[in-house]
Structures are given as C-alpha cells and as structure tokens.
Amino acid sequence: MSSRDLILARVRRALAGVPDAGITRAYRGPSAAPGEIRLYEERVRDYRAVVHVVDEAGVAGRVARSLAGRGARRIVVPGGFPPRWFAAEGVEAVADDPPLSAADLDAVDGVVTTCAVAIAETGTIVLDTGPGQGRRALTLVPDYHLCVVRAAQIVAAVPDAVARLDPARPLTWISGPSATSDIELNRVEGVHGPRTLEVLIVR
Amino acid sequence: MSVTFLGMPADRPFPRNAARAVRDSQLRFNLRKATRTIRARRASVVAEAPDWAELREAGRAIKEHTLRNLDRYLVQLEEAVTAAGGHVHWAAGAAEANRIVAGLVKATGETEVVKVKSMATQEIGLNEALLEQGITAYETDLAELIVQLGDDRPSHIVVPAIHRNRAEIREIFAEHMSGWGRPAPEDLTDEPAALAEAARLHLRERFLKTKVAISGANFAIAETGTMVVLESEGNGRMCLTLPRTLISVVGIEKVLPSWRDLEVFLQLLPRSSTGERMNPYTSTWTGAAEGQEFHLVLLDNGRTRVLADEVGRQALRCIRCSACLNVCPVYERTGGHAYGSVYPGPIGAILTPQLRGMGSELDRSLPYASSLCGACYEVCPVAIDIPSVLVDLRSRARHPWPERAGMAAAGWVFERHGRLARLQRAGGRLRRLVPRRLPGPLGGWTDTRDLPEVPRESFREWWDRTDGGRR
Ligand code: SF4
Residue ranges of the LUD domain (chain A) (predicted)? Predict the structure, then answer.
C-alpha cells in the first residue's frame, strides 16, 4: 500500500461514525463600506512605517522628495508603475527587464511599487505581482520600499481583502517593515526584508 | 506500533526536567519577562476586535469540520496543488518524510538548503537526517539561528530562543557564526539592533546563493491548493521567493477547506501569537509560483492516531499560536525544554503523548505537567479544551506507583485518630533523621516537591501543652 493510501485509510478509520459539524460565520464578514483613510494611516504609522497622504497631483513630487531624502541613486521601478508618478531628478529608474539577479537587487537603493489592496484595520498592504508591483523579489531584497496606495484600494478589514484577492496569484501581505522580537522581545526593524517602508496614500 | 519521533529524546520524565529548569534563575527571569510582555499585548489587541468570540467560534468550527472530512480535503488539496504545477508526496512517518525530502534535495544536485522555521521539520528531525545524507540545512529565522549556532534546542513555538538573553546571544554569534558562513563583526555589541544586523549580513549572503529551500506552512487551502506562511522577519519570504526549488513539509491537519476561511485565521493567529493586529509578512503561493519548482510533503507522523481519539482529536485544531504557553504558570517556570518535545507548554502536554503514545515515562508524565487552571483554554483561538484532554490522558497514564503507595499510606494514617498522633510523636523525635529527599522509588515524589520540615511537636501536642496558647 502506498503511504497516500495508508494515510487516507487511517483517516477514514479514525473518522468512522463521527458525525459532521457545521460552520457558523457570525463574525463580521466582507462589507460594502470602504476603508477609512484616517484609520489606515494611523495603523500604518503604528508599525513605525513612514506615511504621507497626498493628492494625485502631488504624488510625483512626494516620491521625488522621499527618494532625495534617502540619497537614493538607483531605484527599481516595476513594469506598469505609472510613469507620471516617477519623475525624480537624478535618480536612475532601473527596470526589471530582463529580470535582475538577486545580487543586482541587493545593490539598488530601493524600490517603488503600487499595491493590490490595503486594509485599514490592520494597516496592511497586499501585493499580488500585478502591474506596478513586479515579482515578489523586488519588494524583498532592496532595503527600502516606497508603496503608493490609492484611496479606492483601501478596504475596511481582513475579510474584505480576502474577498477581493485572487488566490491563484502569489500574494505578499505587508504590515510594517520587516521586524523581529527575538532578542529579549525588543522590536528591531529590518532583519531580512526592507528596513524602511514608506507609504504614500493618494486621496 | 511504530515509534513516532518528535524531535527530542524522551528519556527523562517532565518533573525531573522541570526541577532542573526551575533552579535556573536566568531562564526563569527571561521567560517571565517574555511571556508577560506577549500576554499583555495579546490581551489588548484581542480586546480591540469587537467580534473576537465569533471569530474564535468560527475558527473552532472550521477546524472541526475539516478534521471530520479530512480525507476528502486532503485529496482535494492534492488535486489543486497538482493542477497548479506542484508535486505532492505523502509521508506516513518521520523517516519516510526525511527520505522524501533528502531525495528531492539530492535530485537538484545541491548540498545546502535554507530553512524557514518549521515545527513539522523539527518534529521529524529533518536537519539531522539531511546531515547524514551530506546536506547542510541552514536555519534562517533569527531565533532558530541563535538556537542552531548555540547547538541548542528551541524552547518556545513562536520565540524559540526565549530562554537566551542578549549577552548570551552576542557570545554565540561572536563564537560560532564564522563556522557557518560570514563571521560576526569584530566589534559586535549586545545591542539588539547590532545583533540583528549581524544576523542580516550573515544570512543575506546565504539567501542570495542557496538554490533549495524548505518550509512548513501555517495553512494549506484545499479548494485552491494555496500554501500560506505567516512570519515577521522576511526570512520566510527570502526562502519562499529566491531559491529555484521549494519543498514544504506540512502536517495533514494544516488543511483548510476554502480560500474564504483565511479571513478567520488571518485575524485569529497574529493576535493570539505575537499580540499584533497583523504579522509583518504573510506569503501565499499556489503550486509552481513564478516558475519555481514546488513540492508539498504531507506528513502524518502520529496525527491519524490523534484523530482517532474522541477526546484528544481536538488537539489537531491547534494553529501553533503559542498563546497557551504564554499564560501557563507551569511553562513560565519550567521553560520549553522540560517537555522533551518540539511542542512545549499546555498544547505539548496533550499533543506529545498522543502523537508519540504513552510508552515512555516522559510521555506518561506530561499530562500531569499542568495545574489545570484553565487559562490555556480561555486564550486558545480555536477553543481547544486542554484541561479536559489532560484529565482524560491522566486517566490513561496512571500515576507512578510510589505516589499511589504514598496516597494509600496517608489514607491508612488518617483513618484512625490515634495512628496520626503516634506517628507525629515519633516524627518529632526522629526529625533530625528525615532526609531532604525520600529514598528509593519514593524519591520520585520529592523530586518535584520540597519536603516540609518536620516540626518539633505536633499541633495537638502544642495544644495540650499550652491549652490552646493560654498557658
Ligand atoms: S492549543 Fe490553542 S492556544 Fe495553544 S498553541 Fe494551539 S491554538 Fe494556540
């Protein structure tokens, strides 16, 4: 007997005569209400991420100032990132085409992306590798991640995000910068992922 | 019956391990500080969720429903993963799982793998098994790195190096990092930020060049074939993203029926575990994501035995959040090592003897490693009634005979008034001869309890002599 059949047979034997149990979902499910920008901003800030709220017209300027503030020279800009948002003087926009090696990614100063969904209640950004986000490695290896979130992408809570997302795509949920609390429970930012997360909310 | 291996030797019973741990004041101090901090954080973010009770009930019910239809969901999961370009393997026990993983690694031609913290692989002793096949496994979770470099064992589900303080960690890094790759900086201090930076540099080198990764998964969705990993540091993302081949070893109880079920567990787990509204990173992937080769190893290793137990099967609902450890007064004093398994604390006390069977003295002693205060049940996000399972297991694991003999003797003494008085007088006269530890097999009792001093005279004698203190 294969182990597959053996395990399945053991499971069936263990369950013989056990009545089924139903699932009740009395908790708050997905809602039609949009997520509050104010709450989202507050929750992102709770993670010690940098947050700005800007108008559509102000995005490019804010991006430029943020990059200049970090002294960034080379920034990865994934395919599909709106060009009107990236007009930083003196900063080289590096394309991931052909795909950059992990070592190349390690050598750039950061990455700018859009996102798929953001969650107000938890201050989370979700990336699904869609346009403007690039593959998963782009937001992982560089030490700095600037993410532009449109107000319409902000949902209220986790169930809204789960309902909107497509499980067939690789997803990355980000809530604040990489962090560890392994040393005497002191929070230290940036062990492996980006040490700085900056979020631009477009009103 | 085959022996189920749980990552640690089951040689000494819990009380003897615990007695040693309780004397370690550094360990006790670290644990106390850590568990109290997480406990307070958890309480505040749980209070913030207006529908916590409903989420908990849904979490319990989804898991219960899944377990009762486990065969169906496992087959569905296999189909979905395969359809998405992944490969599914089934392992009945630890040895088979290790063989499968070693074979998969060898097929890539690589001899080094990176690992993201995984209880399932600790449970089966994968690192040791790979080493025997000439394959080195590098742990990449900061705490696991501390444990691996220190040639130590993890002592907590979520914070495996909870028993180490910063000075110890600095020493471990300075002394052992060079043996595993990039050495620690010369001027390494014991500042947490400096220690994390040293780990970042050490591990980044490893991530960028390693071609094979091994992970566990917090959840596996039957409907879509999606794997889900929650973490904080980004080492999980590194392992799941950069290597060409990804092998995930997942217990069969980790399956969830549908994508939608995640809305429950992504709320329950982070709040219960680290006391955060959300953990920094959650990754999900379905089959061969972004061209990676993906293998899923489904592990039984005693789980079907637990499933067959009417009372005990609820332990399989566990989502390894560690909330029960952090509230447990016994765990807080003894630490994780005393439980002799990768699953410590209250959940370990019920899961380990069920997975492994109660053949050893340790496994028979684990159901007694609790004060039955009920705090673990209260915090458990999937409402596992740990105290009831403990009581049920106790009824099967009899108390050691010296203890039963002691109780019987006490019964005989208390039965007749005169017997107690005569014994007390004798005790008072012989008090200097009473040892701190009872001899022979009775030592088992005093190993876990300090013998009280025998008073010079009994209460009755004192009463007679002083007329209740009036003379
Ligand atoms: S038994 Fe409950 S509280 Fe304990 S680790 Fe498992 S899920 Fe968490």
Answer: 106-202
Atom number of ligand 1 nearest to Cα B347: 1
Angstrom distance (rounded) from CA A117 to CA B87: 30
Residue B320 Cα, ligand 1 centroid: separation in angstroms?
Answer: 5
> Are residues A190 and B200, on separate chains, in Cβ contact within 8 Å?
yes
Q: What is the mean pLDDT of chain A?
A: 93
Torsion on CA atoms B13, B94, B231, B278, rounded to nearest 10? -70
Local structure of residue B135 (DSSP, 8 states): -
Mean pLDDT for chain B overall: 87
In chain B, residues with a C-beta closer than 8 Å to the C-beta of A14 are 304-305, 307-308, 313
- Of B358, A8, A72, nearest to A63 by C-alpha is A72
| pLDDT level of residue B2 (50, 70, 90 thresholds) | very low
CB A125 within 8 A of CB A174: yes
For B417, half-sphere exposure in the C-beta direction (CA atoms, 13 angstrom radius) is 1
- Write down the pLDDT at residue B24: 72
Residue B11 has a pLDDT of 61
What B162-168 contacts at long range (C-beta under 8 Å, 24+ apart), as own/partner pairs, is: B162/B30, B162/B31, B162/B34, B162/B35, B162/B335, B162/B336, B163/B27, B163/B30, B163/B31, B163/B335, B163/B336, B163/B337, B164/B30, B165/A184, B165/B26, B165/B30, B166/A183, B166/A184, B166/B190, B166/B191, B166/B192, B166/B195
User: Which residues fall within 8 angstroms of residue A178, CB to CB, at 6 or more apart?
Assistant: A189, A190, A191, A192, A193, A194, A195, B232, B233, B234, B280, B281
* Model confidence pLDDT, tens digit, residues A51-102: 999 999 999 999 999 999 999 999 999 999 999 999 878 899 999 999 999 9
Which pLDDT tens digit goes with each residue over B379-420? Answer: 999 999 999 999 999 988 766 555 555 545 555 555 565 666
A:B CB pairs within 8 Å:
231
Phi-psi region of B449 (alpha: psi -120 to 50; beta: other; left: phi over 0): beta
| Cα-to-centroid distance, A190 and ligand 1 (Å) | 28
Q: Does B36 touch chain A (CB under 8 A)?
A: no
**B130 Cβ inside 6 Å of ligand 1:** no
ipTM of the complex: 0.96
Contact assignment for A184 to B69 by CB distance below 8 Å: no
**For ligand 1, is residue B158 a contact (CB within 6 Å)?**
no
Tell me, yes or no, if B298 comes closer than 8 A to chain A by beta carbon.
yes
Q: What is the residue-wise DSSP string for B183-235?
A: PPPTT--S-HHHHHHHHHHHHHHHHHH--EEEE--SEEETTTTEEEEEESSSH
Instruction: Tell me if the bond preceding B160 is cis, omega within 30° of 0.
Output: no
Is B321 touching ligand 1 by the criterion CB < 6 Å? yes
Give the sign of the dihedral formed by CA B54, CA B56, CA B61, CA B62. Answer: positive
